[in-house]
Amino acid sequence: MTPSVYEQLHERIVTGQLGPGVRLTENDLASAFGISRTPVREALRRLEQDGLVERAARGMHVRMRSPSEILEIYEVRIVLETAAARAAAEKATELELARLRQLHELMAASSPDDAALMMKGNRRFHEQVWTMSHNASLLDLLNRLNSLILRYGGTTLTHQDRWTTALAEHAELIDAIEAGDCDRAGRVAGSHMTAARDTRLKMYAESAVRDV
User: Fold this and answer.
1) Where in the chain is the domain with CATH 1.20.120.530?
2) In sequence order, which ranges of the chain are alpha helices (DSSP H)?
3) Does 70 score more than 60 pLDDT?
4) Burial 108-142, CB ≥16 within 10 A → b, else e
5) Predicted confidence (pLDDT) at residue 197 exceeds the cutoff of 60
6) Are the C-beta atoms of 190 and 81 separated by less than 8 Å?
7) CB 20 within 8 A of CB 64
């Protein structure tokens, strides 16, 4: 099945094929996709709701990147990840816990030289925690925030010793959820995402220096 216009544009933005500031017009996109302007207009509306594009003086453009946006994204994500972990500690089933342990083991077995595999494993681990919260609204919001983070490229897991510490934090989170300790699970999740935020800011600063 051919991906929708929205899905194709979403993918191009989060992977960097359409970089920050790229202008998006209904006419140009309709011509490029060989379709009418109506589905393009709807796709741009959805992308604006996702926070991936924004209105400018002359139509829409891909949202710019900045340290302040990183802080804003993680400020919200820390709160939501904490809530998801607390809920998971309260509501997770044995089958869900077994799946989480399995995903952690797969992550630990991944090569630290394979960034794509590390990202995939990390995403699946976090998505499982979100699912274990049994809260559809949390899951939807966290997926949207993750799309915003993906725009920054790369993964914090490749920065210095972040891979090793992230695995240790994941193991601690599993222990807290298994114990049904909501407070501890929330603290671990919040601390984990705070460390990810700090690493992301360092990566952004290092990238900015290289680009000068």
Assistant:
1) 67-211
2) 5-14, 26-33, 37-50, 67-91, 94-108, 115-132, 136-150, 162-178, 182-211
3) yes
4) eebeeeeeeebbebbebbbebbbbbbbbeebbebb
5) yes
6) yes
7) yes
pTM equals 0.86
CATH topology of domain 5-62: Arc Repressor Mutant, subunit A (1.10.10)
95 exposed, middle or buried (CB, 10 Å; 0-12, 13-18, 19+)? exposed
Work out the number of other CB atoms within 10 angstroms of the CB of residue 100: 23
Give the distance between the most distant pair of CA atoms in the chain: 56
CA atoms within 13 A on the CB side of 86: 11
Q: At the topology level of CATH, where does 67-211 sit?
A: Four Helix Bundle (Hemerythrin (Met), subunit A) (1.20.120)
Q: How confident is the model at residue 10 (pLDDT cuts 50, 70, 90)?
A: very high
Quick check: helix, strand or coil at residue 56?
strand
Phi, psi of 112 (to 5 degrees): -70, -5
Alpha-carbon distance of 112 to 115, in angstroms, equals 7
